[in-house]
Write a structure and sequence with these properties.
Elements (H helix, E strand, L loop, with lengths): L10 H27 L1 H8 L5 H17 L1 H15 L1 H19 L5 H4 L2 H29 L7 H30 L1 H8 L1 H5 L1 H13 L5 H9 L6 H7 L1 H36 L4 H15 L1 H13 L2 H26 L12 E8 L6 E10 L5 E9 L2 E2 L3 E5 L2 H22 L2 H6 L7 H17 L2 H14 L11 H17 L11
Antiparallel strand pairs: 1-2, 2-3, 3-4, 3-5
Helix pairs in contact: 1-5, 1-7, 1-8, 1-11, 2-3, 3-7, 3-20, 3-21, 4-5, 4-7, 4-20, 5-7, 5-11, 7-8, 7-20, 8-9, 8-15, 8-16, 13-14, 14-15, 14-17, 14-18, 14-20, 14-21, 14-22, 15-18, 16-18, 17-18, 17-22
Protein name: MFS transporter
GO molecular function: transmembrane transporter activity
Subcellular location: Cell membrane
Length: 508
């Protein structure tokens, strides 16, 4: 049975809804992801510098904390959305997200206020997670409830592009800011600019969302007096609906979550920390891959209207399970200097000395630069303040061919992301009735993405570090067992228990 719709009579009405919803959701994802995009720099700003690996893992843990609380945001704001409406609920989430992001850009660093710095950042990160927990379900529900039958996958797929585009925009702003200010200034204080810019973007989005009307299906429920009095009890207290929630989580969203975060965030972390690819070049690799792959969200979302949601999502999970290790082995080899021929006659030493502020101390930077026959450049830099050397910085700048091969490998991973993520909003909306839809779909989505998916970079990086200590063969690949395992379990459950024709929930 199909969900009864009160669709706008004109196509322009649907596109207006999609635009208004997508702009706000894109900005929320931008706010949420600039933290992850700047993880390497933030680890040096908010944690002690004497152990860079521990600082980086702590930053990833703080990043993951925002994901872990997303299910709680889903419960709080999902309930609110089913009680008072979709529009005002995700207006509130937008304000919370924008405010907390702006304040992260204002927090003093570790050297200024000590452990209070990471504590404040963690608190603000938790607020971000709560806000995002209420945003996605509202936006997806709002668009779906304006969409005509037979095109729900197509129209909701535009909301699905906002997560990746939010990451793309965050990378773009970071790169532009870094280029404009220079590396030293950016690493010192310029990293705050992308956070502070959030206040302007959120202000624009609030203006747009204030002009939106409430969902027609929710308005119909209000007029008929059928709004749920207790969405949480109806969603999780009734056996039939709870079964749908669990199936959505363990048969779809958990697998989708690990594919999403492996193909984008862990890929960036792997390129920067394991392959040591230079910061700007690594971000270009991810940004180009995201830009080229983003239209496939809409392609697979529209295709799901014709052939069903399940098989497309399961295919994306299975491809990840089967190909992640070969892909990451190939990525590693592209930056592996032992497989390249060094042009020893071009080796050079570069030394730079600069005064630290208005003090009498100088910072001396010595860099050893090596060149390889495929165009790759390796730079090993040793900064020294006074007589004390600090952590060695290793940077690999890939040659032309290796750069594009790395980009293609990341693009393939993002293509898997579009397969699992493009149809999932329509899939979740169609599982639950209108009166409890916001609450019911938000929880499995945010547990799958916030907990299973959001923990991917942290768990995978931790597994790699553990494997290094135990001298495990191909230690750099060991982090992949986490997303492969979760995706494999979800593939089996989804294939066995999700109807290939997908569920259609009636509102009668």
């Amino acid at each position: 049975m199909r969900i009864k719709q009160s669709a706008p009579s004109e196509a322009t009405g649907v596109w207006r809804v999609i635009t208004a919803s997508s702009v706000g959701t894109l900005i929320e994802w931008y706010d949420f992801y600039i933290f992850g995009s700047l993880a390497t720099i933030l680890s040096a700003q908010f944690f002690p510098k004497d152990n860079p690996t521990a600082g980086f893992l702590s930053t990833l843990a703080t990043f993951a904390a925002g994901f872990i609380v997303r299910p709680f945001g889903a419960l709080v704001f999902g309930r609110l959305g089913d009680l008072v409406g979709r529009k005002y609920t995700f207006l509130l989430t937008l304000v919370l997200m924008g405010g907390s992001t702006f304040l992260i850009g204002c927090v003093p660093d570790y050297e200024t206020i000590g452990m209070l710095a990471p504590a404040l950042v963690l608190l603000l990160r938790l607020v971000q997670g709560l806000a995002l927990g209420g945003e996605y379900g509202g936006a997806a529900t709002y668009v779906a409830e304006h969409s005509p039958d037979g095109k729900r996958g197509y129209f909701t797929s535009f909301i699905q592009t906002t997560a990746t585009m939010g990451l793309f925009v965050s990378l773009g702003v970071i790169l532009l800011t870094r280029q404009a200010l220079g590396t030293d200034i950016f690493n010192s204080w310029g990293w705050r600019v992308p956070f502070l810019l959030s206040s302007v973007l959120v202000g624009v989005s609030i203006y747009i969302r204030m002009r939106m009307s409430e969902s027609p299906l929710f308005q119909k429920l209000q007029k008929e007096g059928k709004v749920s009095a207790n969405p949480l009890k109806e969603s999780f207290g009734k056996k039939a609906n709870l079964k749908m929630v669990l199936l959505a989580l363990f048969g779809a969203t958990a697998g989708q979550g690990v594919i999403w975060y492996t193909g984008q965030f862990y890929a960036l972390s792997f390129i920067q920390k394991v392959c040591n690819v230079e910061f700007v070049q690594s971000n270009y690799i991810i940004a180009i891959s995201l830009l080229v792959a983003t239209p496939f969200f809409v392609i697979f979302g529209g295709l799901s209207d014709r052939i069903g949601r399940r098989n497309i999502m399961l295919a994306g999970m299975l491809l990840g399970v089967l190909t992640y290790r070969p892909i990451y082995r190939a990525m590693y080899s592209l930056a592996d200097l032992t497989q390249k021929n060094e042009e020893t006659f071009r080796r050079s030493i570069e030394t730079k000395q600069e005064r630290i502020g208005d003090t009498k101390e100088f910072k001396t930077t010595t860099a050893s630069v090596s060149y390889y026959d495929d165009g790759t450049v390796y730079r090993e830099t040793v900064p020294k303040t006074g007589a004390a050397p600090t952590a060695v910085v290793k940077e690999v700048t890939l040659g032309y061919e290796a750069f594009w091969l790395m980009t293609v490998l990341v693009f393939v991973q993002v293509l898997y992301v579009t397969m699992v993520y493009g149809p999932i909003a329509a899939f979740l909306v169609e599982l639950f009735p209108t009166r409890i839809r916001y609450t019911s779909m938000s929880l499995p989505y945010h547990i799958g993405n916030g907990v299973f998916g959001g923990l991917t970079p942290f768990i995978a990086t931790s597994l790699v570090e553990t494997a290094k200590k135990t001298h495990t063969l191909e230690a750099y690949l060991q982090g992949l067992w986490y997303p492969i395992g979760i995706a494999a379990v979800c593939f089996v459950i989804g294939a066995l228990y999700i109807d290939k024709k997908q569920y259609k929930t009636a509102d009668d």
